[in-house]
Write the structure tokens for this entry.
Amino acid sequence: MKFLKVNINTAAPRDPEASILLIYTGGTIGMVSDKDDQHLVPFDFSEVIHRVPEMRQFKVMLTVLSLDPPIDSSNIEVEHWIKLAQIIQVNYQDYDGFVILHGTDTMAYSASAMSFLLENLSKPVIFTGAQVPIGRMRTDARRNLITALEIASAQRSGKPVVPEVSIFFNTLLLRGNRSTKVESRHFNAFHSGKYPQLAKAGIDIEFNRSVILPPPAEPLKVYQELESRVAVLKLFPGLNKALVEAILKSEGLQGLVLETFGAGNAPTYPWFLKLLREAVDRGITILNVSQCEEGEVHQGQYETSFYLKEMGVISGSDMSTEAAVTKLMFVLAQDISQQEKACMLAQNLRGEMTCRI
Ligand code: ASP
């Protein structure tokens, strides 16, 4: 996997107010029509200034890295996340903020993964993308890119205003590990129903400072490993035993995100509970998140979740599936005991969940 430095044809500002590293990974944002106007193809990122001439007005020193070749975000892999975290680590001291251009389809997963890989982040890492390619007239790419750059450069009393991994899209700045893609046709593609927005961009950008993570006391710590042998099982009425068995007994499985009903409820069919219990006993970590857009898991409130609690399934509280999958990957890669992993999963690590107890 290669990231290349892209020379963009812009004069360096005389008194730069900030320096930003812009990392282009691909997705719709960087697409233009090919010569025959038949297909969308990734554009040459060195042309970004022609497409977004407003960027010249910024008093920002900009460096651009581009994944070569750029990818559709459906093809993002754990290795890309590790590489992005390494790029931020290597460049951390030299930049005030980082903007990552990424396809929208898996952006919430990538932003969640980055939030776990980057502990004690004191600078902004802002993901953005577009619903309409940069080469189309009604593109949202320009506005998203410009506002993301503005937010990444925003400082107050010499400190970044948003020292966390977030997603800026359309008008909203959302915590990365609280976001979900909810729209594939309209511009408001992301939503974080269980956590307030960090900022809203109108005529001005209004930051909601009380819900932004405070700057950390400790220095940045970058992790380099994720456990990818995890699965997601979304429950539905009429769930088939052979399917559940195939997932839980798949070779090497280390962890499972169980997407349950309502406040964390699951069927109490004896075969289902038996399969889950056996999996937990074999050392598979199971994390319970709800299919509901709002509210949280409360294991034990109903009989249909009491059994889960009793066998050692961990409550994911109000975590999104995207956050749960990447948190599981992150925690299971740690060199700690099974019990410590369970404790870590139940704790709020990066603002991804609300802990009521
Ligand atoms: N398929 C594209 C991607 O996620 C969609 C987008 O960028 O919005 O890469």
About this structure: The pocket of aspartic acid is lined by residues 26-28, 72-74, 103-105, 129, 131 (CB under 6 Å). The two ends are 43 Å apart (CA to CA).
